[in-house]
Design brief:
The protein contains 6 helices and 27 strands. It has helices at residues 6-9, 79-97, 106-113, 208-224, 234-241, 490-496; strands spanning 22-24, 40-45, 52-58, 65-72, 120-125, 134-142, 148-157, 170-176, 179-185, 193-200, 249-253, 261-270, 281-287, 308-311, 322-325, 328-333, 349-361, 364-375, 383-388, 394-396, 399-402, 410-412, 415-418, 426-428, 431-439, 442-451, 454-462. The strands form 6 sheets. Strands 15, 16, 17, 18, 19, 20, 23, 24, 25, 26 and 27 form an 11-stranded mixed beta sheet that branches. A 4-stranded antiparallel beta sheet has the order 1-2-3-5, with no helix packed on it. It has a 3-stranded antiparallel beta sheet with strand order 4-6-7, with helices on one face. It is globular and about 70 Å long. The two termini are 45 Å apart.
Length: 498
């Protein structure tokens, strides 16, 4: 199970809805733990096998800022634990911000992520816990040196699984020239439908949140692909992809479907609504020599993409100029992706793919896709890019990759859109520049592009976060999880409909 991080926990409050509520003032633990008195109170509600809502309130009598989190029962919560916990969180935040200790001092980190006396903080650990397991909610003050004082502990136990199984899932994994074949056999005493999937190994194992996020991801995709109706529910997805209780399942990932690296294969029982109702079993395996390079950075030669890139006439249905400030950005590095697609002017470049999103306007928002090519060996996207198809720094204009049939072929390139319907404003970049600089841990992006008579301008300052890829085994989802489909973006989904 993943260790809980207060960095994620402090994102905001979640309303509690009754159910079972446990309230207490806590207890002390360990010889080094100072007495906390009634400085903290704890409430735990909505307890299920995999979830619970936790609320911690600090008294006005507390004289320091404070933090809290949930730990496993075996953890000894004392000042040494809190010190290691904070250092781990600080290292994670430095990596996330791509910052040095001088750019983001430890004192600033403590100030950003601690809470003030007299306030309450609440978090819903949804599908983040284990069934039938006791946890410790802990809270403490932080003195001027960031050391733990006034530690308090409160325990709660998640519900047991009514449909749990005694046996284990069996995982058989073999590699050949045909690819990686995985066979999963359910326990003989399983009474529910079930599902399995593959996920890149992240060191944390598999919990219910991964199962749920995978199913939610598939539901969203299948709705957008038209394989499920717009009002489809998780029950509709389960009826489509779940496997009967007594049936084993086999799937072969063809060469290039999985990148070289380490993976989990997991399986669990589901109810009709997609809730996890049994233990979650998983096994680990490694893919090597797949011909697809190493997973994560996508810095491979993409021999598995069988297509030819062609410059395409830029398209636009804009009726006015566009200008906005993005508030979110996500980036992937695809290495020499374009080297194998037949446009020689794009060879020997590093491909940085960036998606940027503006604030909501009603239910929609402005978005921009940047398909950028920097000189070979570039480790960051910094530079000034000219829109087109040639040069050292290229903001790729509209390109069509012909894979021999309409289903597999796709568009790429830098583009703008608003919303994602067939009639929404959309435009490829025809000319202009994209300038990217870096200041501390943040990137500054300035887009000054044009298509036809209309301009497209955007600015962004902030981090460039790498998105997480989920690989799926369902044959119904096979097309989505090929190497080429890694580039099925908002931009592509929009342009396919034009």
């Amino acid at each position: 199970m993943k260790k809980m991080k207060f960095l994620a926990l402090l994102l905001g409050a979640v309303a509690m809805a009754g159910c079972q509520v446990l309230i207490g003032g806590g207890e002390n633990e360990g010889p080094d733990a100072p007495v906390g008195g009634d400085l903290f109170s704890f409430e735990v509600s909505n307890i299920t096998a995999y979830s619970a809502t936790v609320k911690v309130t600090a008294s006005d009598n507390l004289t320091t800022d404070w933090i809290w989190d949930v730990a496993e029962e075996s953890d000894m919560i004392n000042p040494a634990y809190v010190e290691a916990y904070l250092k781990d969180g600080y290292e994670w935040q430095l990596e996330y911000l791509e910052a040095t200790e001088s750019e983001y001092p430890y004192s600033k980190f403590l100030l950003d992520y601690s809470l003030k006396p007299g306030v309450a903080d609440e978090y819903n650990f949804e599908n983040a816990l284990s069934a039938g397991t006791t946890y410790k909610v802990w809270a403490c003050g932080l003195d001027m040196d960031g050391k733990a004082v006034d530690i308090k502990i409160f325990k709660f136990t998640t519900e047991a699984l009514a449909n749990d199984v005694k046996g284990n899932w069996g995982f058989s994994i073999s590699s050949s020239s045909a690819g990686v074949t995985i066979t999963v056999t359910p326990p003989s005493d399983l009474q529910t439908v079930w599902y399995w999937d593959v996920y890149e190994k992240d060191g944390y194992g598999v919990d219910a949140s991964l199962v749920t996020s995978t199913l939610e991801y598939y539901l969203e995709y299948l709705v957008s692909a038209g394989e499920l109706s717009a009002n489809a529910t998780m029950a509709d997805l389960v009826s489509m992809i779940a496997i009967p209780a007594k049936q084993k399942d086999t799937y072969t990932f063809e060469p290039g479907d999985l990148y070289d690296g380490d993976y989990y294969v997991w399986a669990c029982g589901l109810d009709a609504k997609g809730n996890v109702v049994t233990k979650i079993d998983y096994s680990e395996f490694t893919v090597s020599g797949s011909g697809s390079g190493s997973g994560g950075d996508y810095d491979d030669d993409y021999d598995t993409v069988n297509g030819t890139a062609k410059a395409d006439e830029p398209y636009s249905n804009l009726t006015s100029n566009v200008s906005f400030t993005a508030e979110e950005a996500y980036m992937e590095s695809y290495g020499d992706y374009w080297d194998g697609l037949g446009m020689s002017s794009l060879y020997n470049h590093e491909n940085f793919y960036i998606e940027l999103y503006g604030p909501y306007v009603g239910d929609d928002f402005d978005w921009i896709v940047l398909d950028l090519l920097a000189p070979a060996g570039a480790s960051t996207p910094e530079g000034t890019y000219t829109v087109g198809y040639s040069g050292d720094y290229i903001a790729l204009s509209s390109v069509y990759v012909d894979c021999g049939n309409e289903d597999d072929s796709f568009w790429a390139g830098s583009c703008y859109g608003f919303g994602n319907s067939e009639t929404s404003p959309y435009s490829d970049f025809e000319s202009g520049t994209v300038k990217i600089t870096k200041s501390g841990s943040n990137y500054n992006i300035v887009v000054d592009a044009k298509c036809g008579a209309h301009t497209i301008k955007m600015t962004y300052t902030g981090a460039l976060t790498t998105s997480t890829d989920i690989y799926g085994q369902s044959p119904k989802l096979k097309k989505f999880h090929t190497a080429t489909a890694q580039r099925d973006t908002i931009g592509k989904e929009r342009k396919v409909r034009r």
